[in-house]
Amino acid sequence: MSNLEREPGVITTSGVVRAVDVLEARKAAIGDGTEVRRLLPQRALRTVGAWCFLDHYGPDDVSRGVGMHVPPHPHIGLQTATWLFQGHVLHRDSLGSQALIRPGELNLMTSGRGIVHAEESPRGRPATLHGLQLWIALPDGDRFTDPSFAHHAVLPVVEEAGAIVTVAVGEYRGEQSPAHVFTPLAGYEVNVQAGAAFTLPTRPDFEYAVVAVDGAATVAGAHVEPGLLAHLPPGVTGIELEPEGARGRFFVIGGAPFAERLVMWWNFVARTSEEIAQAREDWAAGRFATVRGYAGDPLPAPALPAGRLCPR
Ligand code: MN
Question: pTM, whole model, 2 decimals?
Answer without folding.
Answer: 0.92
